[in-house]
Amino acid sequence: DIAKILLIHMDDQNTQIQNAVFDTIFQFATQLKDASEIFINEIRNVKHKHRNQNLCDILIERIQKLK
């Protein structure tokens, strides 16, 4: 699904790609009905695999603020 695919790319070595995917996930999670919980759960499921786990934490925090 789209959440899993995007999260793979949020772990890219290129920080520009990471940031672009971060923004894309944020938009999906905050604009689509019921998407915020889906994305938060997926982020939590893969966070331990990411080089920059802090980016995952920031994304979860920002999504939760807008719920």
Quaternary form = single chain
Report the end-to-end length measured between terminal Cα atoms.
Answer: 22 Å
Helix content: over 70%
How do the SSEs run, as a string of H and E? HHHH
The count of strands amounts to 0
Low-confidence stretches: none
| Total of DSSP H or I helical runs spanning 4+ residues | 4
- Average of the residue pLDDT scores: 95
For the biggest sheet, the summary is:
none
Main structural class: mainly alpha
Number of folding domains? Answer: 1
What features would you describe in this structure?
- The chain is mostly helical and 67 residues long.
- The protein contains four helices and no strands.
- It has one domain.
- Helices cover 75% and strands 0% of the residues.
- α1 packs antiparallel against α2, α2 (15-31) packs parallel to α4 (53-65) and α3 packs antiparallel against α4.
- The radius of gyration is 11 Å and the shape is globular.
In short:
The protein has 67 residues and is mainly α. The protein is 75% helix and 0% strand. The N and C termini lie far apart (22 Å).
Topology:
Blueprint: H1 2-9, H2 15-31, H3 35-46, H4 53-65
Tag the structure with descriptive keywords.
67 residues, mainly alpha, 4 helices
